[in-house]
């Protein structure tokens, strides 16, 4: 029997996490389940769930201060800030000035051992820096993303507020469970609403 999904299938579907764009890159084809009559690609929910689990497990190997989450896209700001608040992980919501990871003379200089970006295109400066310092990159990728320099691709709708909210909520919960700060079946004190915009 397949592992249970991290959240009920219905919750995933309501958030639109599986709805891609009309564009699809060769790299993302392996995650696409079908193309709808309106031309939008639909991502495979099972694969989304697997990759969220992998991303959570990967992040759980690091202390909060060694992780950096970056979101240039405004739709992700509320979710990443809530994520940072509940996990103690550093987040960067807004324009990422290049050099944060590479230039120790900057006031904003940050050492990280792994980064997660909400979209490999607007967050490309952060990815470049991570590659320069040789740390792994986890990226949320929609059907139109290129992903050649990414260590772990998490296929999802990385533009929708509901979708990003759900994703960061799950990763926060799984991170805390993996770190032993929450029981295996225990639900966190925070709610999904804190991560999503109405």
Brief sketch in words of this structure:
This protein is α/β, with parallel strands linked by helices. The protein has helices at residues 9-15, 45-60, 77-87, 124-133, 161-178; strands at residues 32-35, 41-43, 67-71, 90-93, 114-117, 137-141, 152-155.
Individual helix count:
5
Name the helix and strand elements from N-terminus to C-terminus, one letter apiece: HEEHEHEEHEEH
Class based on secondary structure composition and strand pairing:
alpha/beta
Amount of beta strand: 5-15%
Overall CATH architecture:
3-Layer(aba) Sandwich
Average of pLDDT: 94
If strands are numbered along the chain, what order do they take across the biggest sheet? 4-3-5-6-7
Report how far the terminal alpha carbons are from each other. 36 Å
Spans where pLDDT lies below 50 across 5 or more residues? none
CATH superfamily: Glucose-6-phosphate isomerase like protein, domain 1
* CATH-defined topology: Rossmann fold
Residue share in helix: 25-40%
Rg:
16 Å
Shape: globular
Q: What is the level 1 CATH name?
A: Alpha Beta
The oligomeric state is single chain
